């Protein structure tokens, strides 16, 4: 167990294993997202009250799930980096932040577009919408902190601390609809009870959620790999790797 | 885990818990302000200010909507099943507005106890179902509250049995 974790912490080993894992996640993401969106947007039944605007759920919910999950992943990576000094964790946290911010934006935007036909307004300062906006600002804060320091180590520590403290916002987002009166309705999906919609509606949604998660994993693996190359550029193994490719390129051009 | 790492872990956990407590206390202190709207029972108890813009929310009471055929004026009762609040509104209602539907109304409470709304927003619940299922349930005589609870279950049964018969429920 510990040996595996230590291996995972080695950039070289991570670079190798992620190359093998990456195509599987890309393939799964493409398959699930294509299936889920076709099914959800074209074949799933419309809602009895909202009609076709209900289909925004197939983008809104996966994006909102991912926005929160990525923040948790970023905070856990931050903790691993701070306590165990594992650099790969910090690289992963660094590349996750922009995707998390993008997902938060997608969730807010699709929610606003959905709000106009259903609620009659695109924005309301209720607890769910406001806490989600704060999540977007936290992501932007983490990204900005990374750019604000000249020393990479200080930047990583500052960003990690903000991510770890900011994770407090996640349960607030999750339970905001239960704790306070909000315009946003409570969750349709819970771990303990059946989804509040029939199978032909929730199955494409589950497929979309899984597809979004695979996409996140694939993209994080890919971007962490380039981050590893960038930060370890002076290391022996990276130079060997690059040297190997440099020899190959002219040989290919010669043909 | 080395002692140094353990110490670091405890510092971080301590920091995060302190921040969580601080945020928790703040939210607890502000809980009345974080609520998006007053419920009719709070208004009946006099918690809401008069003649100032407030938001009130609840369900549109069944059979309470009366529209003026000559204009866009509409009156309805918002209820939380404990107390009722009469609402007067002139304007276009959202598509989802109907009796038994959740709404948030923005407006001023006047001395006559009515709320004069500038804006009516529809809330919707977390339940979704295809129109055929909703219709089948309604024909079978279920109220919205019942059929929302049964939506998932019946949706599954419709899948298995094909066309629904009202007598089956």
Automatic annotation (TrEMBL), chain A:
Keyword match Transcription regulation: no
Keyword Calcium included in the entry's annotation: no
GO cellular component, as recorded: plasma membrane
GO MF annotations in UniProt: heme binding; heme transmembrane transporter activity
Similarity annotation: Belongs to the CcmC/CycZ/HelC family.
Annotated gene: ccmC
Locations listed in the record: Cell inner membrane; Membrane
Main function: Required for the export of heme to the periplasm for the biogenesis of c-type cytochromes.
Protein name: Heme exporter protein C
GO process terms (BP): cytochrome complex assembly
NCBIfam families: ccmC
Ranges where the Cytochrome c assembly protein domain occurs: 15-184
InterPro entries, alphabetized: Cyt_c_assembly (IPR002541), Cyt_c_biogenesis_CcmC (IPR003557), Cyt_c_biogenesis_CcsA/CcmC (IPR045062)
Membrane topology, record value: Multi-pass membrane protein
A Pfam family annotated for this UniProt entry: Cytochrom_C_asm
Transmembrane region(s): 21-44, 56-84, 91-117, 129-149, 161-181, 201-221
Keywords: Cell inner membrane, Cell membrane, Cytochrome c-type biogenesis, Membrane, Transmembrane, Transmembrane helix, Transport
Source superkingdom: Bacteria
TrEMBL record, chain B:
Keyword Transmembrane helix: yes
Residue intervals annotated with topology Cytoplasmic: 1-8
GO BP annotations listed: cytochrome complex assembly; protein-heme linkage
Residue intervals on the Extracellular side: 30-169
List of residues binding heme: 124, 128
GO CC, any one term: plasma membrane
UniProt keywords, alphabetically: Cell inner membrane, Cell membrane, Cytochrome c-type biogenesis, Heme, Iron, Membrane, Metal-binding, Signal-anchor, Transmembrane, Transmembrane helix
GO molecular function, one term: heme binding
Coiled-coil positions: none
Family annotation (InterPro entries): CcmE (IPR004329), CcmE-like_sf (IPR036127), NA-bd_OB-fold (IPR012340)
Subcellular location: Cell inner membrane; Cell membrane
Membrane topology label: Single-pass type II membrane protein
Family: Belongs to the CcmE/CycJ family.
Function: Heme chaperone required for the biogenesis of c-type cytochromes. Transiently binds heme delivered by CcmC and transfers the heme to apo-cytochromes in a process facilitated by CcmF and CcmH.
Protein name: Cytochrome c-type biogenesis protein CcmE
Source organism (scientific name): Vreelandella sedimenti
Lineage: Bacteria, Pseudomonadati, Pseudomonadota, Gammaproteobacteria, Oceanospirillales
């Amino acid at each position: 167990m510990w040996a595996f974790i230590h291996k995972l912490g080695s950039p070289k080993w991570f670079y190798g294993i992620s190359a093998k894992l990456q195509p599987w996640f890309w393939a799964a993401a493409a398959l699930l997202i294509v299936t889920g969106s076709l099914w959800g947007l074209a074949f799933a039944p419309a809602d009895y009250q909202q009609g076709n605007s209900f289909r925004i759920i197939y983008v809104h919910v996966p994006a909102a799930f991912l926005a929160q999950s990525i923040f948790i992943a970023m905070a856990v990576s931050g903790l691993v980096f701070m306590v165990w000094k594992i650099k790969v964790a910090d690289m992963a946290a660094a590349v996750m932040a922009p995707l998390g911010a993008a997902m938060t934006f997608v969730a807010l935007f699709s929610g606003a577009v959905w709000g106009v036909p259903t609620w009659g307004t695109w924005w309301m300062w209720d607890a769910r919408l406001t806490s989600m906006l704060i999540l977007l600002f936290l992501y932007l804060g983490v990204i900005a902190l990374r750019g604000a320091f000249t020393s990479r180590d200080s930047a990583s520590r500052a960003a990690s601390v903000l991510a770890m403290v900011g994770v407090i916002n996640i349960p607030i987002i999750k339970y905001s609809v239960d704790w306070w009166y909000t315009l946003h309705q409570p969750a349709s999906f819970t771990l303990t009870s059946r989804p509040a919609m029939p199978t032909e509606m929730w199955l494409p949604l589950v497929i979309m959620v899984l597809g979004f998660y695979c996409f996140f994993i694939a993209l994080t693996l890919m971007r962490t790999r380039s981050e590893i190359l960038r930060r370890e550029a002076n290391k022996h193994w990276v130079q060997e790797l690059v040297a190997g490719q440099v020899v190959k390129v002219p040989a290919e051009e010669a043909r | 885990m080395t002692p140094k790492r353990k110490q670091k872990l405890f510092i971080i956990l301590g920091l995060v818990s302190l921040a969580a407590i601080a945020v928790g206390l703040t939210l607890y202190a502000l809980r009345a302000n974080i609520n998006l709207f007053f419920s009719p029972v709070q208004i009946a108890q006099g918690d809401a200010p008069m003649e100032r813009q407030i938001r009130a929310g609840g369900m549109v009471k069944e059979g309470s909507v009366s529209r003026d055929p000559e204009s866009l004026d509409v009156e309805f009762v918002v209820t939380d099943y404990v107390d009722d609040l009469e609402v007067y509104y002139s304007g276009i209602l959202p598509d989802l507005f109907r009796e038994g539907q959740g709404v948030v109304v923005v407006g001023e409470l006047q001395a006559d106890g009515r709320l004069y709304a500038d804006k009516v927003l529809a809330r919707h619940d977390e339940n979704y179902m295809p129109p055929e299922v909703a219709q089948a349930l309604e024909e079978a005589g279920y109220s919205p509250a019942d059929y929302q609870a049964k939506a998932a279950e019946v949706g599954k049964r419709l899948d298995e049995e094909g066309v629904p018969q009202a007598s089956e429920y």
